[in-house]
């Protein structure tokens, strides 16, 4: 037997993880139904808004775009810098889900409006929604006005008479929906709604709510390994092999590709599917983003290694049982996610709510049900000194001690190979 922890009490060091703090504020319609949320990055220590913080926010939002605690199925409004608009992170976003809030150019507007126009037009053509503040109604920004899906009117900056003029001008010269923001009183709401504004944001409706988005951080060594494989156009088998050997990579990829923010029409249940559907270009973008949020150090935690050994052991045993390839892949998924509760410091039921997994996988993880549940019991027994549990699990699957021990040694060797 190996020196892997004897049970699931999770006394070993946790897989590197972090909590991203995101504030969201609802944007509502005239019936006060939420149509979207503006997101604010509250994790950064500096108040400076940069291209890097844009990337971090979009990356986190992507992975949580289907989570009820963040945005559910609503639109995501994200503040941008002009530098970040050309970033590759937007290649990973389902444009239909995202509204990019474009900042004004300040004193350089007259020189840069035309220069920036092609990037904005390209984003719009790709399907992104664009939002501007009221300055887009100035003559200087005339080339941008036709691109506006939303125009935000800041009630803390605009007097009543200014509002009336801007609303009439916007309705006459653009097809944009108007959003009155920083609505803090009933009087302000009455003023803008009486002039035809249909969307609202501000303390009168909802204050920004802080959401703690849990992230699992893969090792930098694994991410760099993935980047190198993609850059050398390695085979799908090689990339899949690497993904299966880092629980953090596995979790992040499956969560991303099954999120509503990614926009897949069907559920993805295997790493091979994920790699093939994502493609090398997007896989490279994703890995590069992941690297910016990862921690230094290239040694996986013992908990992460245990999860990988379990996954490989269960996969090998499923092959011994003659299960079809789709089921052997599910066996691996059960094993590598069997410590997800410890990785994320939350109950397994809550951890699984962050992912889309097939019903047999969920039942195995929550109830140890079915053949996959029996395989998980056997994998856990292999980590312990409980001979009775080992015998019961082996008997349930009709596997010999020799078959199990050989598979366990292979799984340990396979895992050690990637972490050397």
Q: What is the assembly state of the chains in this entry? A: single chain
CATH superfamily name of the largest domain?
A: EAL domain
Q: Give me the strand/helix succession.
A: EEHEEHEHEHEHEEHHHHHHHHHHHH
Number of helices: 17
Low-confidence stretches: 1-7, 9-17, 65-69, 295-300
How many domains would you count in the coordinates?
3
Mean pLDDT: 79
The portion of residues assigned to helices is 40-55%
Number of DSSP-assigned strands: 9
What structural class do the secondary elements suggest? alpha/beta
- Determine and state the CATH class of the largest domain: Alpha Beta
The strands making up the biggest β-sheet line up spatially as 1-2-3-4-5-6-7-8
Shape: elongated
Measure the end-to-end span. 20 Å
Strand content: 5-15%
Biggest pleated-sheet summary:
8 strands, mixed, barrel
CATH topology of the largest domain: TIM Barrel
What's the helix and strand layout?
Layout: E1 17-29, E2 34-41, H1 51-63, E3 75-79, E4 98-102, H2 109-125, E5 129-133, H3 142-145, E6 150-154, H4 160-173, E7 177-181, H5 186-194, E8 199-201, E9 209-216, H6 220-231, H7 236-243, H8 247-257, H9 271-293, H10 302-320, H11 325-336, H12 340-344, H13 348-352, H14 359-367, H15 370-382, H16 387-397, H17 401-419
Parallel strand pairs: 2-3, 3-4, 4-5, 5-6, 6-7, 7-8
Antiparallel strand pairs: 1-2, 1-8, 1-9
Report on this model:
This protein has 17 helices and 9 strands. It has 420 residues and is of the alpha/beta class. The protein folds into 3 domains: 17-212, EAL domain (TIM Barrel, Alpha-Beta Barrel), CATH 3.20.20; 217-254 and 261-293, no CATH class; 302-419, no CATH class. The two termini are 20 Å apart. Residues 1-7, 9-17, 65-69 and 295-300 have low confidence and may be disordered.
């Amino acid at each position: 037997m190996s020196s892997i922890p004897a049970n699931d009490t999770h006394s070993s060091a946790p897989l590197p993880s972090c909590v991203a703090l995101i504030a969201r504020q609802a944007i509502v319609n005239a019936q006060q139904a939420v149509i979207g949320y503006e997101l604010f990055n509250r994790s950064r220590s500096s108040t400076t808004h940069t291209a890097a913080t844009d990337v971090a926010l979009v990356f986190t939002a992507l992975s949580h775009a289907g989570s009820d605690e963040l945005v559910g199925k609503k639109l995501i409004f994200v503040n941008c810098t002009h530098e970040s608009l050309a970033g590759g992170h937007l290649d990973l976003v389902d444009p239909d889900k995202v509204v990019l809030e474009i900042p004004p150019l300040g004193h350089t507007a007259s020189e840069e409006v035309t220069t920036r126009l092609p990037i904005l037009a390209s984003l719009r053509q790709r399907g992104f929604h664009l939002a501007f503040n009221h300055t887009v109604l100035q003559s200087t920004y005339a080339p941008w006005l036709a691109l506006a899906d939303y125009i935000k009117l800041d009630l803390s900056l605009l007097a009543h008479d200014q509002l009336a003029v801007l609303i009439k001008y916007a309705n006459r010269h653009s097809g944009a929906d108007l959003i009155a923001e920083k609505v803090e009183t009933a009087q302000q709401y009455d003023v803008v709604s009486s002039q035809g504004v249909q969307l609202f944001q501000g303390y009168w409706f909802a204050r920004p709510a802080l959401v703690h988005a849990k992230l699992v951080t893969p090792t930098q060594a694994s991410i760099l390994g993935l980047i190198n494989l993609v850059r050398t156009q390695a085979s799908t088998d090689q990339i899949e092999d690497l993904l299966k050997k880092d629980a953090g990579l596995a979790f992040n990829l499956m969560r991303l590709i099954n999120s509503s923010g990614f926009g897949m029409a069907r559920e993805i249940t295997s790493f091979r599917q994920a790699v093939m559907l994502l493609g090398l270009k997007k896989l490279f973008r994703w890995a590069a983003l992941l690297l910016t949020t990862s921690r230094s150090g290239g040694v996986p935690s013992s908990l992460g290694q245990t999860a990988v050994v379990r996954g490989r052991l269960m996969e090998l045993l499923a092959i011994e049982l003659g299960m079809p390839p789709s089921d052997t892949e599910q066996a691996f998924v059960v094993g590598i996610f069997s410590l997800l509760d410890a990785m994320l410091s939350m109950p397994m039921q809550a951890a699984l709510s962050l992912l889309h997994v097939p019903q047999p996988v969920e039942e195995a993880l929550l109830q140890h049900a079915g053949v996959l549940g029996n395989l998980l019991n056997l994998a856990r027994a292999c980590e312990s000194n409980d001979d009775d549990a080992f015998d019961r699990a082996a008997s349930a699957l009709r596997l010999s001690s020799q078959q199990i021990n050989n598979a366990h040694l292979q799984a340990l060797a396979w895992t050690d190979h990637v972490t050397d």
